[in-house]
Amino acid sequence: MEFKDRVAIVTGGAMGIGRACAVKFAQAGARVAIADFDSEAGEKTAAEIRESGGDVIFHKTDVRSFAEVEACTEAVIQKWGRIDILVNNAARAIGGVVDEIDEDSWNEVISNNLTSVWRFMRCVVPHMRRAGKGSIVNMSSVQSLKGFHGWAAYAAAKGGINALTQQTALELAPAGIRVNAVAPGTIMTPLNEKVFREAADPDDLIRRWNEAHPLGRFGEADEVAEAVLFLASDRASFITGDIVRVDGGLVVKGD
Ligand SMILES: NC(=O)c1ccc[n+]([C@@H]2O[C@H](COP(=O)([O-])OP(=O)(O)OC[C@H]3O[C@@H](n4cnc5c(N)ncnc54)[C@H](O)[C@@H]3O)[C@@H](O)[C@H]2O)c1
Fold first, then answer.
1. Is 217 in the pocket of ligand 1 (CB under 6 A)?
2. Ligand 1: which atom is nearest the Cα of residue 20?
3. What DSSP string runs through 111-153?
4. In the prediction, which pLDDT does 195 show?
5. Active site includes 227?
6. Set 37, 154, 209, 218: catalytic member
């Protein structure tokens, strides 16, 4: 019950890593708001958490819309009166090499995956400031730290998240608000299931991606959620502005 009475917003909490975070926060006693644009999956995840005794709401929110992010923030404040934890996790995987990707796709990735993080911070931070405390965890990626062919816009968005994490950690430290990021390696979630489905040779891609991780396998959504919960908790009380890799050693691999 580490998070008893704490209120957490998890964006993209309907599926994958966000879902794992929402489940674990609820199990640890938090009141959880799932902000996601997929109503069916969001309601389903919320119902499952509720059935297990968790305190949860689903708020249909498209993180590309400032008005919807504002409405979600207000709904959480109306219901629980505070926001202690914000997990900016929602993102879409849209690939493309730099000279092939079109401007609409570029803008879509940046809005969905990077500006969305600012939108939620812009709405939630004033409430955290008033409380004099808070913890924000942004979902980055190893793609912000290393090159992977065909992901120009996605990698740029994740690199932007790292920079935003460091900047806001500095700006918000005097207000008692910590800001960190988690950079996962390959995690088997609906996002990657789609990438594999669309690959020319899915078996070859899965084998190569497994081998890319020194631990020899993909990670689990729960393994990323563990890092998110740690950073959000008081156990991480002296950690801010950090980018924590959960990547099976992918980034340190040199041969
Ligand atoms: N899976 C991986 O291998 C991996 C690796 C590195 C980083 N990440 C990052 O982890 C996070 C979660 O990824 P995942 O694999 O769980 O993805 P996923 O596709 O399985 O889940 C993403 C969730 O975000 C929601 N979402 C997407 N766009 C949204 C929008 N505009 N508004 C509201 N909700 C939206 C989706 O509905 C979904 O519930 C993302 O930030 C992703 O970039 C994933």
1. no
2. 16
3. IIIIIHHHHHHHHHHHHHHHHT-EEEEEE--GGGTS--TTBHH
4. 85
5. no
6. 154
